[in-house]
Amino acid sequence: MPIKIPNSLPAAQVLESENIFFMDAERAYSQDIRPLRLLILNLMPNKSVTETQLLRLLGNTPLQVEVDFIYTESYVPQHTSQDYLAEFYGTFAEVRHKKYDGFIITGAPVEQMAFEEVAYWEEVAEIMEWSKKHCYSSFHICWGAQAGLYYHYGIDKQATGQKVFGVYKHHLCVEHERLFRGFDDEFYVPHSRHTEIKKADIERMPELTILAESESRAGVYAIANIEKRQFFITGHAEYDPLSLKQEYDRDVAAGLPIEIPQNYYPADDPTQTPVVRWRSVANLLFANWLNYYVYQETPYELDGLYRAADD
Q1: Which residue range is the domain that position 9 belongs to?
Q2: Which segments are annotated as binding site?
Q3: Most exposed of 26, 99, 151, 305 (fewest Cβ within 10 Å)?
Q4: Of 177, 196, 213, 238, which residue is the catalytic one?
Q5: Can you say which residues are annotated as belonging to the binding site for substrate?
């Protein structure tokens, strides 16, 4: 899927080196089609890394996609310069009048805090409420999934004690689910978190369905609401091959208690090159969401569908 991004975005050089097709605005406007419009609320500290991870996957199917990035105004990111944000990001205030085919909310390194204690919680809650009437399909990742389940359905996260850290085997819980079309019976996904959503808490909600889970410590992996308009994904299929290694090396260097990520290094030896088991999973997951729940579901005229929701 050719994604329209600024040529000066750092991710552009990485994507070009990987032969991922993207286009600039001039070329995009010359195509006589309506692109899919996606909004990404990027809450990760190193925003350029997360941008590249997501754009790599969103650029892997055959339609044109237009992406807007936003950050929270209520908290100034510590690892991304204001110049960078001013050039490549907007704020919620700047996009709240728009309509989008899809909305992605990323994870955030605040999972051990109560939601209400997070500096930007009220703004994130406002954006999630707004997304129900301004974004046709929503895709919540890791802390974003926990935040969405808490805000929309009142399900709180629980501490795991020991960090869920590694690459875990999962299986599907429902048959013929389009989000997982083409998946093997068993598949692997990275996780990195200190909290979880309990299966029993989800099962008490008739509005929610568990789509995939792990028998290991990773637990529930994918949840959808009954309309299949909201998806909650607890792992990080978008992670790069060395993402877990970088987290592990960082914590070791800082003297923090951290275990070797499970099922990641050959023979659990951190001196060896990690084994990537999730690349095809990531590509299928995002391609299926875009195809079956965004492209094939949203109407051509978004304004018509959401006119009643205008402020």
Answers
A1: 1-31
A2: 163, 192, 250
A3: 26
A4: 238
A5: 163, 192, 250
Statement to judge: residues 18 and 71 lie in one domain: no
Give the pLDDT score at 77: 81
Based on the fold, state whether residues 91 and 185 are members of the same structural domain: yes
Q: Is residue 164 located within the same domain as residue 27? A: no
Mean pLDDT across the stretch 205-210? 98
Over the chain, what is the mean pLDDT?
89
Backbone angles phi, psi at 87, to 5 degrees: -80, -40
Give the tens place of pLDDT for each residue, 258-304: 999 999 999 999 999 999 999 999 999 999 999 999 998 877 666 65
Give the tokens for residue 49. Answer: 């890394």
For 11, the 3-state DSSP assignment is: helix
- Based on the fold, state whether residues 12 and 40 are members of the same structural domain: no
What is the DSSP code string of 15-73?
HHHTT--EE-HHHHHTS-SPPEEEEEE--SSSHHHHHHHHHHHHTSSSS-EEEEEEE-T
Residues contacting 291, CB < 8 A, separation 6+: 61
- The answer on 92 and 4 residing in a single domain is no
Of residues 134, 152, 191, 236, which has the active-site annotation?
A: 236
Same domain, 15 and 128: no
Number of structural domains the chain divides into: 2
Verify that 96 and 151 share a domain, yes or no.
yes
- The C-alpha atoms of residue 57 and residue 73 are separated, in whole angstroms, by 27
Q: What is the pLDDT of residue 306?
A: 53
pTM for the model stands at 0.88
* Per-residue confidence band for 311, with pLDDT thresholds at 50, 70 and 90: very low
Both 141 and 287 in one domain: the answer is: yes
Per residue in 28-66, pLDDT tens?
444 446 789 999 999 999 999 999 999 999 987 777 899
Residue 271 falls inside a structural domain: no
Q: Above 70 in pLDDT, residue 310?
A: no
Q: Check if 238 is active-site.
A: yes
Whether 97 is a known active-site residue: answer no
Per the annotation, the verdict on 191 as an active-site residue is no
Q: Name the catalytic one among 51, 134, 142, 213.
A: 142
The Cα angle at residue 205 between residues 199 and 210, in degrees rounded to 5: 45
